[in-house]
Amino acid sequence: xxxxxxxxLQISCAEPVRAVNQxxxxxxxxxxxxxxxxxxVDVLPDARMRRSEDAFGNIVHSCCHDGPLEQLSIxxxxxxxxxxxxGVVRGLPEKMPLDVYLRDTAATQADKDLxxxxxxxxxxxxxxLGRMHVLNAALxxxxxxxxxxxxxxxxxxxVFASRTGSARELAQVFVAAARGVDVPARFISGFFLGDEGxxxxxxxxxxxxxxxxxxxxxxxxxxxxxxxxxxYLRIALGxxxxxxxxRRAAAFGYAREDAAAVLKVDVCRxxxxxxxx
Amino acid sequence: MNSKKAIxxxxxxxxxxxxxxxxAARALYSRIAKWLETSPPGLLDSRRxxxxxxxxxxxxxxxxxxDKEAAERLxxxxxxxxxxxxxxWLRLEAGxxxxxKVLNMFLTDVYGAQEIIRAGVIPADLVxxxxxxxxxxxxxxxxxxxxxxxxxxxxxxVDDQDFYVLEDNCRTPSGVSYMLENREMMIRLAPxxxxxxxxxxxxxxxxxxxxxxRSVAPPRCPSEPNIVVLTPGQFNSAYxxxxxxxxxxxxxxxxxxxxxxxxxVVYMRTTEGPKRVDVIYRRVDDEFIDPLVFNPDxxxxxxxxxxxxxxxxxxxxxxxxxxxxxxxxxxxxxxxITRFYLGEEPKLKNVSxxxxxxPDALKYVLDHLSELxxxxxxxxxxxxxxxxxxxxxxxxxxxxxxxxTAPDNFIAQPTLSLSTxxxxxxxxxxxxxxDLRPFVLSGSDGVRVVPGGLTRVALKxxxxxxxxxxxxxxxxxxxxxxxxxxx
Lengths: 277, 487
Known about the structure:
The complex is a heterodimer.
Chain A: E1 2-27, E2 34-44, E3 50-53, E4 59-82, E5 88-89, H1 112-122, H2 128-142, E6 144-145, H3 156-162, E7 164-165, H4 167-180, E8 185-192, H5 195-200, E9 204-212, E10 216-220, E11 232-238, H6 241-244, E12 247-252, E13 257-268, H7 273-276
Parallel strand pairs in A: 6-7
Antiparallel strand pairs in A: 1-4, 1-12, 1-13, 2-4, 3-4, 5-10, 8-9, 8-11, 9-10
Chain B: H1 30-38, H2 43-58, E1 77-84, H3 86-110, H4 115-118, H5 124-128, E2 150-157, E3 163-169, H6 176-189, H7 191-196, H8 205-215, E4 227-230, H9 239-249, E5 252-254, E6 259-262, E7 265-268, E8 275-276, E9 279-282, H10 305-310, E10 315-317, H11 328-331, H12 334-342, E11 349-350, E12 354-355, H13 359-367, E13 372-376, E14 385-387, H14 393-405, E15 410-414, E16 420-425, E17 428-437, E18 439-443, E19 446-449, E20 454-458, E21 472-479
Parallel strand pairs in B: 1-21, 3-11, 4-5, 4-9, 9-10
Antiparallel strand pairs in B: 2-3, 2-18, 6-7, 7-8, 12-15, 13-14, 13-15, 16-17, 17-20, 18-19, 20-21
């Protein structure tokens, strides 16, 4: 899929804040499944954007605003082309030792119930990739997908106990379950570009990736019960949502924030870049 | 504590640092022994009361977590100093320098090329799944490859030859204020005794610390770097020490709210406007230093601090993620780690340790719980540990359950018969078990060790737990310029 993407996040503070520091993970990296052309991230009011790369290989923008500040806009836009690679993630620099992806975080800790559920679901399947498909289908069936993201996702065990969650929450459940059965797993934040995504998932989407020998990293989306296709734009990875969050902010002078995100996807019907070259 | 008995032999046979097997004093302690003999009755008691009064007046207190009534407790101070001869110190010092060098090399390696893991010396999961490992630091080089600028190495003795490391502390070791205050107290309370011994000074510790911190300042900073001490605040158990050190160093004591980060540069608020900060001696744990990277609810650090740190505009001492080296499970590999990086034998010994993650070891530990000391891998301060010989049946069964549910979280060690030193009580003097925490400073210009350290003493008879949070006391540690006290 070839598309022009415009993402806009509008933040309104209930009261003016003195200063805000922000870290944004809103820049996708190219790999075999996606090509990125002309991507830029901007903020309003204007501020110096510093671009860096974190330890996981995510492209990070950070900026500081002096207040008083009531309104903040964050824009990310560019042209991309995605391909259906059946969820397999190749062509990314992998810097982190694999064992790191077996770490528990507070948000991705599996409790007894979730562990038992995973082990039970996997009991009949031996093939490593097949096991992850089974796990994804089982979680998709057991947990209802409730579109729309709250301020921060609840911890995996809580989400699993309630059997319902947002895309972020279900992705964390999948990560917790996979690590629980000793499969390296990570959280992925991104956009869903398909029609159903705009209506159902909202601007942000999230899924999980697991490391399966001998293929490597493979994506699974427990919310929609499939592997990422060309309707998925992969942006950042982390051990859990907090590590891959599109935006993290801290303000001097606390005030409640309201955030509204809009994603505009213009699908180009022309031949792909690949075809032109 | 109110033991009315005079000197009574310990139940366990152990090395007493003052006396030889036949009861005569070692040459090192000859003057101390004489002093104890000739002091008029009641002198030690009155000195101890004076010490307590002085400590209270200065306000050296610490808080015990989980104990409402002990929000400001005094650590008992023992008036009888603990002595080390010059030769003993030289051996210990060489061992400490080697140990800290290796700890820094290990940290540089695990956050960098991971040679030691690839060589199969240490299992990958032990490092990368460790709670104290910080993935955010992977691939980052700490300035000058120094991760633990201030290390506290806990040392115990079981004979007059070897020094054993009980524990490495690479994060924010505390206790150095007691080392300095105890010395002042001794000079004040026993000036004659002090004058009779050629004691090497510890008073230059703040200068050494300042020099080490200066040496790791970012390269682009002006000739006189702005150094601050970052404290979590007055409710932290070591707050007294934080303010004490800032005062001795002649630098500002700041809390998270005093710092701002703008465009990857850290500033502190002053009455004259924001002032750039170059080096932060931080006594705030990793998880709390930056809400944008770690715990998002933390107000103890500063938003953006990690960004400033990773871009090299400020140096944090100790480095973020240094805790992975002082983990008790990593500790068990220290002899192998030393050989791997230096090709040398470790000069300080490790206490032999059973890693409960290994099935054979676990079986042995479960069979011998009543003889062993079992420790939580990530625990500190004497919390979460079982001293088998002193535990009740209930406690042992409790630990058995814990071990069976999460064996990876525990290690076990033989109950060491720690060395003893004479310690004074109301109405008497008796040997009590001691350990020693020397402080090792690393800068770009080398490793510095101040001759001395904090001697902690288990005040309960027979007790092996010296932690101040568990009823331990402290002593002044005298490193002599000679091998023995001149008669």
